[in-house]
Amino acid sequence: MLRRRDTFTGLVAAAAAMQLPRPGLAQGSAARTLRVVPQANLTSLDPVWTTAVVTRNHAYLVYDQICAVDSTNTPRPQMAEGWEIGQDGREWVFTLRSGLRFHDNEAVRAQDCVASLKRWMVRDVFGQALAAQTDELAALDDRRFRFRLKKPFPFLALAIGKSQNPCFVMPERLAVTDPFQQVRDATGSGPFRFVAGEWNPGQTAVWQKFDAYQPRQEEPNGLAGGRMPRLDRIVWTVISDASTAASAMVNGEQDYWEYPLHDLLPVLRRSRDLVVEQRLLEGTYGVLRFNHLHPPFNNLAVRRAVAMAVDQRDYLRAVAGDDPKGWGTCEGVFTCGTSLASERGSEILKTRNLDRAKAALRESGYAGEKVVLIAPSDYPQINALSLVTADLMTRIGLNVEVISADWGTVVQRRASKEPVERGGWSVVHTTSSGSDLGVPTIHLFLRANGPNAWFGWPQDEQIETLRAQWLDAKDEAESTRIGAALNARAMEVLPYVPLGFYWQPSAWRRNVTGVFRAPATVFWNIAKN
Question: Could you tell me which residue ranges the Solute-binding protein family domain spans (predicted)?
């Protein structure tokens, strides 16, 4: 098994670079520009069309939210001044703060929120649950809009304000776009505006401070509170070679590295000019996703054979090294340590046996169909997960073809429902914050509603029934019981294979101030001295 990434030759170069004289602090406009090495290449600007985290990070810069979650995952007003709940929980009326404006200087209206909500509800798993309980969603006037519900939905504010794929508000003219088509105009009302003329996918993306933005006056708390733009410009530069990125950080050519390679963390920590800390509130969970539409993984027996070969420890060591303090196994679908965490039915992930997996594959009816695994060459953590899977699938007898591409291409290709001979795929990998896997309604990979599920499109009526029952759970005991049943069913039919979690620090220069912990990488309240 692949256990660890090869040591980069650039480690030596980065260490040597630390002996160079330290540059002086930037002056003038440079002092108000944050230079960022992002986790991946930004190829899509639409956070409804794709769930790619790099697109979500962009969205947090340019869009605002009706409400947002704090560090305890409690929804708080954001664009909203507040909301009122009536009719025994079946009516929610939201009122927007006055003076909100889009980047094109048009006023933000309730109609924009309604159109954005309707588009978002088509694609988001929690939004779909909300839509199923909505009788009417309409603007009452320019500042107020109303949900009228079939029955009480106490999770409504959490649904639209959660950290993973929340409802970002676009102008109505953009929000009426088919949710399965990409919006390419990034006009929002957030603290920064996207500079389209300086966007060069694969190289650079730029945002500028939006002077008309009106932040809330509270201190930041998770994703809630004041989103104060304290920088004039934010520039993302894609540096696919990790050793080059490390040297750029040490030499003062870059200010912030979102996802440093774990092998290079010791080099970064030895620099007196750098801070290396965990920013995300939860660990990062790995995901192995099958394409359920086409052979061979439309065959449950083949999926189960793969799961029998999986040893989470191999994946986690490949990403984060041998120190178990940097990672942890989690052989269930819900975030470990949370109220719904369960290993009921998870025995298949404890098999960890290639010989048994080979035997199961022989008995599955697998006919040698090609398995196309697309791996992101410029995203080291997800690439490492992908290569471990490619190795174990080959060893149990699957006919594997690895296609290496940049992350932006992976994001585009995974949306294809075509068979592999027409540009489709069989297996992809991704990651998710543990804060987004704690309950069924926000768990992206646990939705099994076929064409409307996340890429891979699993379909299982029992999972969907249990998800709906969880929403109606009357107490904690019933909630826990349904959670355990969901884990058991997911382990039986395998919409995906969980790969455990690792801690992913970020790195920034010491003259970067105001960095705070949150469920996502955000850049408001950050400044450079």
Answer: 75-417
